[in-house]
């Protein structure tokens, strides 16, 4: 049995968790700072770092107390070292290094994106080879995994990430940041009345582009205003969401057809989207030999439990770091 403590502070959530064997969450303390950033319409890095400093020891205490675990019961300290905001990452990294040094535990460097994917293990163990659709506020990628800890990017976005496009359309609709959940809810009350064009629909491959869609939504609203008309917000949300889902599902279907995988993982903040989960469930009816393993909704957003899951892969592969480990804000696979 391997029990890891994990630290995550890459963006606007400060989190410490304790995870057993990469799939059982013993505790997952998450402090969110969204309220502090909402009035700015996005994360303010300096504000984020200060909040992390304030919360890192509190979340650590809560994680240990909730799991009823003593430091002597732990086997290692997993920590996100990228991608993310450098000032935010540094706080979790310093917390993890200090804890590792104080208790004589090995330090395990974890890629935040691997963490999002590994969180599928909290649903069912991922079956390999696997395809992962990783959709968050900063990334949109189709990742092929032949085995645990083996990541090959098949396709990614050329511009905005899927979550970013939700947040930008949310700003247009005066919804508070981050707007993904609010647009998802609105979409369910509306009808698809606008057929937004899909970027790169005719191109081969597995890449995405969402900035044209965002511009098309803005143009629709402005053109309607000039005609003295208004588009119902619910219909705009439903039409936008349908276009995002069509792009994500189309590329995923192509990859599933081209690569003989045994499971499909849906991960990242946008994996909480109910329309996307439903559309992929429908798609998987055509791939009955492939197991669809979405990350459980409570672990789709940023949290340290997912870092504990990916940290376990590294622990098994004996990937450890020295105490001079630095952040890598632009880290990818
Ligand atoms: O993975 P995450 O928590 O942070 C990053 O690593 O980026 O993802 C946050 C993103 C935000 O853009 C947010 O609007 C989006 O996930 N999101 C959603 C939903 N819930 C969160 N997007 C669409 N539908 C949702 N239900
Ligand atoms: Zn994330």
UniProtKB/TrEMBL annotation:
InterPro entries, alphabetically? Answer: ATPase_NBD (IPR043129), Gcp-like_dom (IPR000905), KAE1/TsaD (IPR017861), Peptidase_M22_CS (IPR017860), TsaD (IPR022450)
A GO MF annotation of the entry reads: tRNA N(6)-L-threonylcarbamoyladenine synthase activity
- Specify where it is mainly localized: cytoplasm
Instruction: Give its localization.
Output: Cytoplasm
Q: Which Pfam families match?
A: TsaD
Q: What is its EC number?
A: 2.3.1.234
**Annotated keywords:** Acyltransferase, Cytoplasm, Iron, Metal-binding, Transferase, tRNA processing
- Name any cofactors this protein relies on: Fe(2+)
Catalysed reactions, semicolon-separated: L-threonylcarbamoyladenylate + adenosine(37) in tRNA = N(6)-L-threonylcarbamoyladenosine(37) in tRNA + AMP + H(+)
Record note on cofactor: Binds 1 Fe(2+) ion per subunit.
Record bears the keyword Isomerase: no
**For substrate, which residues are the binding ones?**
134-138, 167, 180, 184, 273
Which residues are involved in binding Fe cation? 112, 116, 302
Q: Which domain of life is it from?
A: Bacteria
Domain named Gcp-like is located at 24-308
Q: What's this protein's family per the entry?
A: Belongs to the KAE1 / TsaD family.
Q: What does this protein do?
A: Required for the formation of a threonylcarbamoyl group on adenosine at position 37 (t(6)A37) in tRNAs that read codons beginning with adenine. Is involved in the transfer of the threonylcarbamoyl moiety of threonylcarbamoyl-AMP (TC-AMP) to the N6 group of A37, together with TsaE and TsaB. TsaD likely plays a direct catalytic role in this reaction.
HAMAP family per UniProt: TsaD (MF_01445)
| The protein's name in its UniProt record | tRNA N6-adenosine threonylcarbamoyltransferase
Species this chain originates from: Fructobacillus americanaquae
The taxonomy runs: Bacteria, Bacillati, Bacillota, Bacilli, Lactobacillales
